[in-house]
Amino acid sequence: LDARKHAGGLVGAYLRDRDIEDLMVAPLKGERSTLGIIMIGNRIGDVTTFDGEDLRLFETLAYNASVSLENGQLDKTLRNLTELKDELRHRAYHDPLTGLGNRTLFIEQVEAAVGERASDAEIAVMFLDLDDFKTINDSLGHEAGDELLQTVAGRVRNSLRPNDVPARLGGDEFAILLHELDDPRVAVDVAERIKLAMKSPFRLGDDEVFVHASVGIAMSSAETASASELLRNADVAMYDAKSKVKGGYAMFEPGMAEAAIERLNLKAELARAVDSGEFDVSYQPVLDLRSGAIVGAEALLRWSHPERGTVAPAEFLELAEDTGLIVPIGSGVLRQACREISLLRKETRLPLTLGVNLSLHQLRNQVLVSDVAESLQLSGLPAQALVLEIAESDIMMDPDATIETLDRLKALGVQLAIDDFGTGYSSLSYLHRFPIDTIKVARTFVRRLAEGGDDAVLARAVIELAHTMGLAVVAEGVEVGSVLQQLKELGCEYGQGYHLAGVLPLEELRNLFLPGPDGNRNVVPFPA
Ligand code: C2E
Ligand code: CA
Ligand code: CA
């Protein structure tokens, strides 16, 4: 019963007198007549209203009560009633999936802690949010998602001291209340322990996945007077941590709030930009280092923002990943780049290749394989001309599932490249498990060639090992002539970088192939 709907009449007056908002009523049926009624009310301001499950429990109780009454066992009924009350109370305050306290309980506990706080002992509120939960939930299913949340809850609980209070706020958000800290470093220690606890892979059915959690910490102080402020600050710090590195933590500082607002704005604009077609593709030529010819180009996403101007991927990619918007944006890049480079191949009669970057979210999304097939078909670009680039760190996130996807992509006839090689933690021999054709050596690594010394030796070793494994090597970020010279000597086949060619709009890329003033092409064509 919704008490407000029965505002008039006797029942209404009765409920109003007792401040009751929701009410469950059941008749107590005896063999021959109705013995009475039993009701449970929820006062205005209490936490939750009743749901179907509560109603079923209540019905069972009413039935038991009738039987007991007929048999004269009223004491048993009263005991049941008390148990039901406790059960309902527990439910109102706990998350059924993980058994942790829920948002309602957590907020009450923070309020109580703020209220009782002794002036010399601080309290801390920590917010924890999983970085890749949505992708896992989408790709492995909700059951796996639930299992993951339970394991996370366990790992969080085990990282705490006995008096610390963990809770699940909802979705993949957790929170922790730390009492009586004499030193803020204690909160940092807890964050470190959680970070460590999240490091080992999560086993979900047959899959093993890696999951990071971002943690925000807010300490009470003379200025942060209220519980709600403390909660908000922890949330802001969590967003700050998330926007920096995956799996990190951050301590709230004034000024972070503005950054968080900026992030929210960007998020809204990103969603709008997808619809209004503000994304475009530019191209960076890939050169054959032996002949100096352009053999292909890498498609690089650009956002032409009406007020901000051109926004580089570094500024919005992570947000696009978190929101899942990278999936429609990525399909757009694939389609446009395939179409444009297919045309350019026809115009120039050169067997140019096209590199397209894939993000983790795309890799885990079911539509990727059909998206690639469709882009190839619509554009007429031969499959072997398309090189899909996957960052080394992404390929390592969920190796088994990734291999499966890569095999399906490979079956379409496309080439696969490991991007930013040298920045992850994998060894080349491990990568041998993946069906790849090319490694792109990260620019931080290539740059070391210019510095000489041990670093240069390592960079050389990587190139040589790749060759022994039968992989082609593209050196990224070739910025100076001396590096180019060394790469040539090492037998590195391909290169990209500002020293060779910048990132160009399609028109400028096309101009590179037009005849120059002397009638020759600006670029020596790659022998077909
Ligand atoms: P990436 O795949 O490693 O792309 C190369 C990046 O290095 C580009 O940055 C390019 O502008 C820059 N670069 C090229 N030559 C040099 C050089 O000589 N020196 C230096 N310092 N940098 C150079 P950009 O365009 O800002 O892209 C950044 C990253 O964003 C890319 O790194 C790639 O991981 C990602 N990205 C770009 N476009 C897409 C896309 O369409 N989809 C996805 N998922 N990711 C993309
Ligand atoms: Ca790339
Ligand atoms: Ca790269």
Note the topology.
Layout: H1 9-17, E1 20-29, E2 34-43, H2 52-70, H3 74-93, H4 103-116, E3 122-130, H5 133-140, H6 142-158, E4 165-170, E5 173-181, H7 185-197, E6 202-204, E7 207-209, E8 213-219, H8 227-244, E9 249-251, H9 256-276, E10 279-288, E11 294-305, E12 309-311, H10 313-323, H11 326-348, E13 353-358, H12 360-363, H13 367-379, E14 386-391, H14 392-395, H15 399-411, E15 415-421, H16 428-431, E16 438-441, H17 443-446, H18 448-451, H19 453-468, E17 472-475, H20 481-490, E18 494-495, H21 506-511
Parallel strand pairs: 8-9, 11-13, 13-14, 14-15, 15-16, 16-17, 17-18
Antiparallel strand pairs: 1-2, 3-5, 3-8, 4-5, 6-7, 10-11, 10-18, 11-12
Helix pairs in contact: 2-3, 5-6, 8-9, 9-10, 11-13
The structure holds ligand C2E and calcium ion (2 copies).
